[in-house]
Design a protein that fits this description.
Elements: E1 2-8, H1 14-22, E2 39-43, E3 46-50, H2 62-73, E4 78-84, H3 88-100, E5 106-110, H4 112-117, E6 121-122, H5 124-131, E7 134-137, H6 146-152, E8 165-166, H7 174-179, H8 182-201, H9 206-228, H10 232-250, H11 253-269, H12 271-278, H13 280-284, H14 292-299, H15 303-309, H16 316-327, H17 335-342, H18 349-370, H19 391-423, H20 439-448, H21 459-467, H22 473-482, H23 491-503, H24 508-518, H25 520-544, H26 551-571, H27 578-582
Parallel strand pairs: 1-3, 1-4, 4-5, 5-7
Antiparallel strand pairs: 2-3, 6-8
Length: about 575
């Protein structure tokens, strides 16, 4: 089997090219650092390997070390250097570095249409003759002609050319120049998030209307089946577990799909790239860099994916802080749980969702600030071109998370609800009994004592919280299973439950990803700390009101600032007085 490596700078289009060659659906995006690990797939006699972006083998970020290791492992592989047409001259430096290692790559140029539309001139054949390299437009590349391309390469390679390439005089548009201003980019990013929340969660928004329509369909189906099934046991499995339990989660699919769709549009448009650049100064206050904007937005979709992508950060210290911040970001799986509880509120549902997300983001940034260790590097960033997002591509990208949500609901939630249903019907002697005398009730009543400070020491709530550690969707299904007529909670109890669910640790898959990225020690530390924080905030919310959930946050920030101020008063702030001591 012949190996083919795809190398190149970040945001050059390597993964898009990989998907075209292999007919795959790997994650792509209009920003720096989408690919963080080697991805390979076999096509005929070739094994295509997509590697993380890098500018040089001399730099030391984690994703670049992955590319260097793969380059050394695949010694006899053919190398395709994927190059953005706008940055061809700059990319020749990496070409020269590859040649010094005994490899002459084949250059595949991407974004040629945008380059020509901007007024650039590109003649690939002339460039090939002048440099001795094989330089092809992406549209002209054919995998079946790879051996022919290899024979065309010359050992006498020149890294300059006199003609055949003329970059456009004005690379950035007026909109791009405007977004280069930090204030404008921040406002645009915040407005985009507000539009996303309105589109997904507002009462009369399209996503909310679709959600109510699906709820009505499941309700009608539930009533119809309940009337024709004589057996109470089968009726419980089909009506309570399948239609009420699983249906209560699937009805949130339009809102989750809307969230992913809006995030995809922001990614493809290039807005996130400018937001990362603009927010770098702000996030530096929390010992993060601008890339955190990507992970915060991606965490709204799937925290596990966001944690995995932190591998593209420059060093382990910054990665640990970012992973800790990700633990507090509410993912799409947590959304059905919050909206299930909010379904019992007659008003302020939209404001409550905004409040919970704001609370989670505040704790996310504060956790990164408190867990400062080591120094973050300055942000090295290549601004992606601002472009009109493709609705077709956004819809295509939407299919994968929607399919995964449906599959996960069927594979994880349905077996969990069936197991809960069975265990709640039998006592220790395996005789049929009421819920309150079942095996589950006896086990969960011990845990429910911990919920007494929240005002709801109910074993069913304890069961829902415990099931959420496996998958957050289980919580919504469990609550719908045991409370089909609504929740008998006061407003204080309801807000306390919302806070503990919003701030609680993510699912087991996110914990596994955290262990893989930062190690078991830090993963356990994050889990225990977040569990304690969510519990204390929920207790404060129940006894002092909804806004009291910010109280532990304010205490932590105040304590940290007090310690820092006293440290500087005693030891001095040498960082800002270097000229005084050494000048």
């Amino acid at each position: 089997m012949k190996d083919v490596l795809l190398l190149g700078s970040p945001n050059a289009g390597k993964t898009t090219f990989f998907n075209e060659l292999t007919h795959s659906h790997q994650k792509t995006g209009n920003w720096h650092g989408v690919t963080v690990s080697a991805t390979e797939k076999r096509v005929g006699e070739y094994r295509i390997v997509d590697l993380p972006g890098l500018y040089s083998f001399q730099t030391g970020s984690m994703e670049e070390r992955v590319s260097l290791k793969a380059f050394l492992d695949y010694k006899d592989a053919a190398v395709l250097q994927v190059v953005d047409a706008f940055s061809l001259k700059r990319s020749l430096r990496f070409t020269q570095e590859l040649k010094s290692r005994g490899v002459i790559p084949i250059l595949v140029l991407t974004k040629c249409d945008l380059f020509s539309a901007a007024g650039g001139i590109l003649d690939a054949e002339r460039l090939s003759r002048e440099t001795g390299l094989v330089i092809l437009r992406k549209e002209d590349f054919s995998l079946s002609r790879l051996e022919e391309y290899a024979r065309l390469k010359s050992e006498k390679v020149k890294f300059t050319f006199s003609g055949g390439y003329l970059p456009p005089t004005e690379k950035r548009s007026k909109a791009e120049n405007l977004l280069c201003k930090p204030l404008v980019a921040c406002v645009a990013f915040i407005l985009a998030l507000l539009v996303t929340f309105l589109f997904c969660f507002y009462e009369y928004a399209p996503c909310s209307l679709c959600k109510r329509g699906i709820e009505t369909l499941f309700s009608l189906a539930n009533g119809w089946l309940a009337g024709i099934i004589p057996s109470d046991f089968i009726k419980g499995l089909l009506c309570d577990c399948l239609l009420s339990g699983v249906g209560s989660v699937l009805c949130f699919l339009p809102q989750i799909a809307g969230l992913y769709f809006c995030l995809s549009l922001m990614e493809e448009s290039g807005l996130l790239s400018y937001a990362a650049f603009a927010l770098d100064d702000l996030f530096s206050l929390f010992h993060l860099n601008g890339r955190a904007a990507f992970f915060l937005s991606m965490g709204f979709g799937c925290t596990t994916t966001a944690v995995t992508l932190t591998r593209g950060l420059p060093n382990a210290d910054v990665q640990r802080r970012t992973v800790l911040a990700m633990q507090f970001v509410p993912c799409s799986a947590r959304l059905p749980v919050l909206l299930t509880l909010l379904g019992g509120m007659a008003k302020n549902q939209w404001l409550t969702v905004v409040f919970l997300y704001l609370l989670c983001l505040c704790f996310s940034l504060t956790a990164a600030f408190l867990f400062r260790k080591g120094e973050e590097r300055e942000l090295l960033w290549e601004l992606a071109p601002l472009q009109r997002p493709s609705w077709k591509k956004a819809c295509k990208d939407l299919l994968f998370p929607v399919k995964q949500f449906i599959i996960k609901t069927g594979r994880v939630l349905l077996p969990c609800l069936i197991g809960i249903r069975l265990l709640s019907c039998f006592d220790l002697s395996l005789s049929l009994c009421a819920y309150e005398e079942s095996i589950l009730a006896l086990v969960c009543q011990k845990t429910a004592i911990l919920l007494s400070p929240l005002g709801c020491a109910d074993w069913k709530i304890a069961l829902a919280l415990l099931s959420g550690f496996a998958a957050k969707e289980n919580m919504a299904g469990t609550l719908s299973l045991f409370y089909p007529e609504g929740f008998p909670f006061s407003e204080g109890q309801l807000y306390a439950l919302l806070v503990i669910i919003a701030l609680s640790p993510p699912c087991i898959s996110c914990f596994a990803a955290t262990v893989r990225e930062v190690g078991l020690r830090y993963a356990l530390l994050f889990f225990i700390g977040q569990t304690a924080v969510s519990y204390l905030c929920a207790v404060a919310t129940y006894h002092l009101g909804a806004w009291a959930s910010f109280l532990p946050l304010l205490l932590a920030v105040t304590f940290t600032l007090f310690i820092r101020k006293n440290h500087e008063r005693i030891y001095g702030n040498r960082k800002h007085n270097a000229e005084k001591f050494y000048g």
